[in-house]
């Protein structure tokens, strides 16, 4: 499948692209955009089978983009990717005929399941209509592959990080939890996810911090940082700015 990604955070966009390349090499990211308007203008050129977009973006938001994309390039299946587990968002997404609604950051199992489902639907759609001359063919779904031992380890580590992100987590922590050398776990993780363990943990913590700031914009910085696993509010602010592109206080004012 041809995939287009849209998210206004370049670091997350890059991480997601690397993750897809690792876990689903049979599919190809043909476009990555940090703005909805730019992505919309490029849809006809990119001809995606799958469009994955964040919701909360500056300018045109993700839901508006997906609604417009249905008019501009109706062949693309549409997926919402959001840090906000808000039912109203999910409801609007479903009303816009989206394929799925995933919370950020998605884990490898969720993405693999999404791609298998999307590829099957794309194949059915292609079979249901006559082939157009010169049209790009969509890759059909591969047979479901059994989960390897390495994939199982990464899945379990990812789940552990997401369940214990408020706690102090080091390579030594994971060694004790999984009985494997920390550097080996990190090597497996980076190969499948496209980023290191600590990079993924930082990204996940910042996404959780965004949730808190969206729900309670006046929450003290030291409280937010402590609730998402950072002991030092100043360090938390630096990491937040590096990942989100703005400071926590600037994000809270949006």
UniProtKB/TrEMBL annotation:
Residues 125-149 are annotated as: Disordered. Keywords: DNA-binding, Phosphoprotein, Transcription, Transcription regulation. Residues 2-119 form the Response regulatory domain. SMART domains: HTH_ARAC, REC. Residues 155-254 form the HTH araC/xylS-type domain. SUPFAM superfamilies: CheY-like, Homeodomain-like. One of its GO terms (biological process) is phosphorelay signal transduction system. It holds the Pfam family HTH_18. Gene3D superfamilies: 3.40.50.2300, Homeodomain-like. GO terms for molecular function: DNA-binding transcription factor activity; sequence-specific DNA binding. This is Response regulator. It comes from Cohnella fermenti.
